C-alpha cells in the first residue's frame, strides 16, 4: 500500500461517534440517538434523574424491573470501569439497569453485569401500511392519565414485566410524557384493552417501543393494528428499533419494540415486515443488588426505528 494515501499523523479520522457528527451519518447512529433520547425523555417526564453525555445516556425511569432503565452507550466502550462508575452514580445499588451497546464490548461480568444476548437492530424504511385494522379492533391514542394507566397495565401484563407488579399508575409512564414527539396507543378488542405501543421521534427516525399484547388477545390482529398506529413512515420517516425496545430472545432485536407477543415471541406480529440490519448489539443487565438474583430477562424482538426523510 502506498504511503501517499495515508493522512497526516495528526489528522483526526472520523469514527462516526464523535458528539458533533450529524445524526443522519448512519442508520446505526440514528438508532443510538433515538434510543438514548427515549430513555432520558421518559425519565425527565416523570421528574426522575437522567443523564446524557458524549459516552452514554440513560434515565432512572423506575426502581424495579430488569429492563425498566435502559442505558445507551453513545460510542464504543473503551474504558468500562470509568464509564460504569459514572452509571453507578445515577443508579443506586438496589436499582437495576440494562446497558445497550451498538458495538461489541469487553466482558462486563467483573463489573457486576450479566449478558442477556445480542439482539439485532431492525428497521423499516418508508412504506405504506394498512388503512384500517381488522374488524373488531379499535385503536385509540392515549391522551390522558386514565388512558396511560390502561396502557401501563397492558404493557406490564403483556410483555410481561413481572418485576413491576404490583403496579401503581405512573410507575413506568408519566402523563407529561404525552406530547407531539412521544405518543402511545392502545388497541381494544371486544370492549377490552388488548395491545399497546409507543412511538418516539428523534434524530430523523421514529423509535417504536413498549409493544405488547395481552395473552388472551393474541392472534386477533390487535398487535399489528397498534403497531401500525404509530406515525406512518411515509409521513414521519423510517422506523427502527433494537429490543429495547424494541420484542423472542436474542434472535430478535433489543430494547424497543415491535413485538406483540411476549418473551417467547409466540405472539409476535408477523404482518409487519421488518428488516434485520447487519449488526447485533450486546445487552447487559445489572440486577438490583439488594434483591435476590432473578432469572435473566428475555429481550423482546427488536426495537423498531422508523426512518424519516429517506
Q: Describe it for me?
A:
- This protein is α+β, with helices and mostly antiparallel strands and 310 residues long.
- It folds into two domains: 24-118, no CATH class; 123-278 and 297-307, Aminopeptidase.
- 18% of the residues lie in helices and 24% in strands.
- It contains five helices and 14 strands.
- Strands 6, 7, 8, 9, 10, 11, 12 and 14 form an eight-stranded mixed sheet that branches.
- The protein is globular and about 70 Å long.
- Mean pLDDT is 80; it is low at 232-236, 243-272, 291-304 and 306-310.
Output the keywords.
alpha+beta, Aminopeptidase, 2 domains
Shape: globular
Question: What is the terminal separation in angstroms?
Answer: 36 Å
How many helical stretches?
5
Tally of strands: 14
* CATH-defined architecture of the largest domain: 3-Layer(aba) Sandwich
**Percent of residues in β-strands:** 15-25%
Radius of gyration: 19 Å
Percent range of helical residues? 10-25%
Elements, N to C (H/E): HEEEHEEEEHEEEHHEEEE
CATH class designation of the largest domain: Alpha Beta
What about the largest sheet? 8 strands, mixed
- Low-confidence parts: 232-236, 243-272, 291-304, 306-310
Number of self-contained structural domains: 2
Overall mean pLDDT: 80
